[in-house]
Design a protein that fits this description.
Rossmann fold; 245 residues; 26% helix; alpha/beta; N-terminal domain of TfIIb; 2 domains; 4-stranded antiparallel β-sheet; 7-stranded mixed β-sheet
Amino acid sequence: MSDELTYGEIYATIYEEYTTIQGRVADVEETVDFLERYCSGGSALELGIGNGRVAVPLSERGVKVEGIDNSDSMLKLLARRTDLIKAWKGDIADFSSEQRYDLVYCVYGTFPLLFTREAQIACLRSAAEALDDKGVLVIELWVPGLNPLVAGQTTKARLVDHENTIINVSVHDPLNQNLISTLLWFSGTSVKRLPQRVRYVYHQELDTMAECAGLELTERWGDWSRGAFTERSKRHMSVYRRSSP
């Protein structure tokens, strides 16, 4: 598997602060509202549960949430927040569970951390096997932009405010749909360097890979409030069920 093996260890100490300034904590309520529709009073499995940013508030609504993460540091952060969620260390590209879930979900930037197409398909297969007969898989993905990528390298300001400057420097490998990036986070007198590797996926390809895993698309939305997915959308929430026999 890719740098998903080390992502959690690198980001664990700053994850809550980073997701807060990126606006990801603010949209948790909408995220949980969306997910709860598919598992109200039932069970859910989060792939890449991290510190429980989404899992904890979902569990507080009466959903029995479990999770997988390959980072000991992230799992420790989760354990400090709650003892109500069962989570274990594992590879989201290759896992199995005796439990079957109403909902399996993979959000934020987790799925692209699987650095190869083979690993991404394997993740979808594992997720499909973990669903009960009427269960759904929800995946959040950003929509790849074309213009910044064609030159092979790009530098982009992710955030600039009176306290923080976050710059993302990326090298593009179009043959494998890989981005090798480094986030440089300037805050006060400190500088943090946060490397990351991802394999971006277009929504049409995600559908094809899901079909290989025995899943079919049932819904696609442009945001957590269930806005339409259009040519202007910057991300999507895709909902899959097991394919009919």
